[in-house]
Amino acid sequence: MGLLATSSTTFNEPYNLARQFKALDIMSHGRAGWNAVTSSGEEVAANYGMRLPSSPARYGRAHKTVQLVHALWVSWGLDVWGRDQATGQFAKGDQIAPINRGGKFVASRGQLYIPPSEQGQPVIFHAGGGPNALTWLAATPALLSVRPSTIEDARAQRAAFRDATERAGRNPDEIKFIIGLRRRSRATSDRHLIGGSR
Asked: What SUPFAM superfamilies would the database entry show (predicted)?
């Protein structure tokens, strides 16, 4: 069992996202993931004192945010540990590589002050099937989660996703396509329950 936490790339900075989810990854021993969303609705943007950017702008920022988060996650090499009691060296300085990236949407300079985890990096999920989402996912190391209304809808969404991934020059099998379930319940009389239990 794992924990999947949702956090918006529109209203959060890459450094905080990298720090929070890497800490969860270490504490949970790899059982925590990030559901990266771009957010929608002016009422959500109003919580942050902002106007909601356009969908292309939100996904443009999401793409750069995830790139920066990954760069921060790998700013510590896997062979970073020194743990030399004789010299007092805790970590190998040549295994820590600060980043310096900037652009239209986001920027970050420095290194993450959290060491690497033994399992690598947190898993990234995204729930969305629109054109901008598919274009972003095709170039992003994430898992796609969808909630289709029918089996045919699920097949169509999967085909569109695989096509977008191939156009981006990637192997569609590299990104997992996960289908959520829609549950419906209705009132059932005691008579049916009793009859069904015999």
From this structure: Bacterial luciferase-like
